[in-house]
Amino acid sequence: MYCIALCDDEEKELDRIEGFLARYQDRKKSMEYRIRRFTDAETLLRQVRKQSYIPDLILLDIFMAGKNGMEAAAEIRKLGFFMPIVFLTTSKDHALYAYEVDAIQYLVKPVEQDRFFHAMDSAMGRMEKRKESQIVLKVAGGVCHLEPDDIVYCESQKNYQILYLTNGLQKVRMTAENLWKILEKFSQFGKCGRSYILNMNHIVSAEREEIAMDNKSTIYIPRNKAAEFKKAYFSYYFEQGDGEDEALYETNIPK
Fold it and tell me: Are 89 and 40 within one domain?
């Protein structure tokens, strides 16, 4: 189930686009989504900032009272959210700026249904692709959607897993084994003893029994697991290369 945000300061425009969405869904029976309407950009932004509502797609007017749609889109990107954005506006003047915020479509009002459907096809294609690469976890109060590289590392604490993210922490009630079943399909994750799962894209250095992460954390590896983990790390690190540097390093891995 996708969440779609409609943001326009004219109710008749919201009604029109919601009607298009209903007809689009009639054609795409497999696509399910919920719609939330906003009559100003600031209300939408406030919910995104608090992460109380993160839409999968935003259909956004540009010319609105208060913060305009282009400013809202720029702030959403600065907050680190990269969901598809489709602009719906009365002017072509901002078309070039739309590329700066990675908008996937720029539609000039009055929007024609065929053009809107084409924009939705593009948006849905991107959303489906993103869904395949996302990590979805049940957390207190709902569901957490993460990109793999949002996770720096995970630490096991009995029946809870602490996820150290690029923008904070997330505590998940599940076993380390079940979390590993979710993460192991992403090649950048490696187990480090019983307590840690590390994202190897966030490793700064691996020396002796210490792993330095790019969030300034240091992970201490059990001595009997150090060689095994480092071998996996350098195999991942050099998998795109010719393997010569990896072979040189393997001769110096502590046993």
Answer: yes
Q: Per-residue pLDDT for the chain (255 aa), expressed as one digit of tens each? A: 889 999 999 999 999 999 999 999 998 877 788 999 999 999 999 999 887 888 999 999 999 989 999 999 999 998 878 899 999 999 888 888 888 999 999 999 999 999 999 999 999 988 887 777 778 788 876 677 788 999 999 999 988 999 999 988 999 999 999 999 999 989 899 998 889 999 999 999 888 889 999 999 999 988 888 888 888 888 887 774 544 444 444 434 444
174 and 116 share one domain: no
Q: How many domains, in total, are found in the chain?
A: 2
| 109 shares its domain with 23 | yes
124 shares its domain with 205: no
126 shares a domain with 150: no
The answer to whether residue 255 sits within a structural domain is no
Prediction pTM value: 0.62
Cβ neighbours of 76 (radius 10 Å): 23
Question: 249 vs 28, 168, 198, 214, 236, CA distance in Å?
Answer: 53, 33, 20, 21, 13
Give the Å distances, CA to CA, from 27 to 22, 84, 104, 181, 203: 9, 21, 21, 36, 46
Range of the domain at 152: 137-250
With a CB cutoff of 8 Å and minimum separation 6, the contacts of 132 are: none
The tokens describing 41, both together, are: 């950009």
